[in-house]
Structures are given as structure tokens and as C-alpha cells.
Amino acid sequence: MSSNSPARFSAGDVMLLVVAAFWGATYLVVKQLGQVGTISGMMALRFLVAAAALWIYCLIKRDKFQKAEWIMGIAFGLSQTIVLNLEAWSVHLTSATNGGLIIALAIITVPILESAWRKNWLPYRFFIATSLAIIGLFLLIMGNGFVQPNLGDLLMFIAMVLRTFHFVILGRLTQGKTFSPVNLTTVMVSTSGVVMLMVNPMAAFNTASHYNAANWGQMLFLSVLCTSFAFIGMNWAVKHTSASRASLLLGTEPIWSTVLAVLIGGESIQFFGYIGAALIIGSTYWGQSIESKHRLQ
Fold it and tell me: Is the whole-model pTM more than 0.70?
């Protein structure tokens, strides 16, 4: 197969799938850590530990930070913090199904916004693929049940809109630039950590005091791999591909979370769940093939 074949997965695609897998693992880890301390305290620790790991790496590498990396890192760190907090508050008010389907709309809204911004629309078949992916997601998580639309759904919708702009603008501003994904991620994660610590510092200290060795092991996994590494991987991949393609591939996150919930958490998956997973995988492969061919042309 030719290296330019639109159906072939690139290194950036593989990285995005790895990121989706790590983010899928966060559901199980966050669920377990959420039983110790508070959610806000856990989130503050997550970003502070991730920031510490990144700064240690930066000090070893001694790479210089560009002024633009500081500005963009702080700006996107703030938007990232807002989105994460909106999502966190939303899940307390609505069902996982409602929230999951609303945030999944970014699979469609990202390519719409990116196409409008570039004034170069993706083929209609790409939007068919993204719609099929959302249908697959619905089938995969429908067992959680729906709740009547409420404030939680509105918060998740706002988070989805902000995530769409965050993703597209990040991709547009970094593509073709010399920005370091590590430097950018370091400033973003540090900003999130500082903001979340300032909001409720005692929650972070109290939560940390209740952690045992196993909890700290989970926190290191959540911070270093699911946050530091995952955000570096996402920023690097978005810089070398398109926001639309990245959004589609990251949409496989629910599959990874479901697989881990079954293998480790002891949960079960219904027949329609398997159909949904197959639909997500198939539509993702089809969609990335369409996007590659369009971009190469």
C-alpha cells in the first residue's frame, strides 16, 4: 500500500488512538479515586502532579519557551479548565448517556467549524461517517438510561461548544508553526492546576491526605499518562493533521472505556453495545479515509 494511501493510518492517527485509550481509562480511575476525598480536590491534584512531571522533563531538556507558547498555553489552559469543570458539574445533574451523547456532538461540530473556517468543506460522506459514529456511541452507552433534559444537559452542551472552538482554534494556530507540543502542554496543564488549586485549595490538601499508596499509584497513572502524555500526544497530532480527523479518532474513547470497564471493572456489555462499538470503529476508519483523500487532493 502506498504511503500516501488515504486508508492508511499515520503516526498521528495511532497517537490519537493511544490518547483515546488513555482517556477511556480515566473513567474507571476517576470513579475509584472519586470515592476518596472530593472531585475538585482530585482534579486539582491531577493537574498539579501532571504539571510537576512536565516541568521536571523541561528542566532536563532545557528547551526555551517561546512567548507565543506562554500566551497560547495560558489561554488554552483556561479554556480547558472551564470545559472540564462544566463536564464535571454536568455529570452530577444528568445521566452518563445524556452527557456522553451531547459531548459526542463535537465529532460533527468540529469538522463543521473547521470547514467553515478554512472555506473548504469536507465531502458529505465524512459527515455521514461522523453521524454513524454518534449512532454507534448511542448504541454503546444506551444501557445507562436517559433522564429528562435539565441544567446538566445545558452545561454539557456549553462544554461541547467550547470544546469545539478550543479544538479547532488550537489546530489552526499550531499547524505549520514551530511550537513545541511539550512546552505548550506544560503551560496548559500548569494553568489548569493553578486555577483549580486556587478555587478550593483545602479540597486538594484534604484529598491528598486521605490517599494511600494504591491511590497515589492511580493518581500517577491519571496524571502522567492520561494527562501529561495524552495532552502532548493530542497537541502533537492536531499540529500534524486536522482538527476534524483528530475529533473523529478521539471519538473512539467510549470504546476503550467500555472495554476496560468490562475487563477490569467487571461490568457487562449488551448485544447493542457490540453493534455500537463495531459501528464506531467502521465509521471512524471510513471517515479518516475520506478526510485523508480530501486533504491530499
Answer: yes
